[in-house]
Write a structure and sequence with these properties.
Bound molecules: 5-O-phosphono-beta-D-ribofuranosylamine
Structural class: alpha/beta
Order of helices and strands: EHEHEHEHEHEEHEEE
Largest sheet: 8 strands, mixed
Radius of gyration: 17 Å
Distance between the termini: 35 Å
CATH topology: Rossmann fold
Number of domains: 1
Helix content: 25-40%
Number of helices: 6
CATH architecture: 3-Layer(aba) Sandwich
CATH class: Alpha Beta
Length: 223
Amino acid sequence: MRHRHKSDNGTMKSIVILISGRGSNMQALLEEHLPCRVAAVISNRADAQGLAIARQHGIATEVVSHRDHLDRESFDVALATTIDRYHPDLVVLAGFMRILTPQFVSRYQGKLINIHPSLLPAYGGLDTHARALRDGVKIHGCTVHFVTHDLDNGPIIIQAAVPVLRDDTPETLAARVLREEHRIYPQAIRWFCDGHLSLDAEGKVLLKRREQPGSTLVAPGLE
Ligand code: GRF
């Protein structure tokens, strides 16, 4: 049965996915045979399209609206309270468009990951595709990373690179990157749930396992 696989030692990790909108990364995760249980999908917007997709997959959904809270701190406390009801091993940000407080980030240290549509540390923040096109870079991509206090700058787990083509618009480039997002996010979560990810003394990601060298870089257009 999907989302109900047991890992080698018999324990099954669980994840909670946070979204704000379309939810295509969330959908890619739900359609993979990940070695974990997807306990819930939580959105800060009741109109997030991804909520309906989650329900179609039989996943519990919750809305914690930032509009119901006076400040970032109280919103994050409410969000954490909702997340913790599901006791997840990992909190997965998948297009979650709220900046999180340091308290929230600390609470989930080493258990909070994000996908960002650029090859970090280049192009943190918004409008990554338009900025890459303006700069004329020839290579662009996406990054899965642990979330730390340094926005869009936590330890990198896996990246995918795509070529930037001469006639690209932000939309065509975004679509090329998004296809790769849908490949690398499930991979990163599989590694986490199988217990293969850890952080070394310098805070860099270690991939424990006999993964092939280079498995943390996906570069389909460059092969
Ligand atoms: C993705 O491009 C992701 O990298 C960024 O927000 C977008 C979310 O898209 N953080 P979706 O909601 O997963 O379709």
